[in-house]
Amino acid sequence: MSSNLRFGFAVNNVKDIAQAKSFYTEVLGLKVQREAPNFVQFEHFAIASDNPDATSPIELYWLVDDADAARRELAGRGAACGPVDAKPFGKLFTVKDPEGAQRFVLEFATSRPSKSV
Question: What does pTM read for this prediction?
Answer without folding.
Answer: 0.78
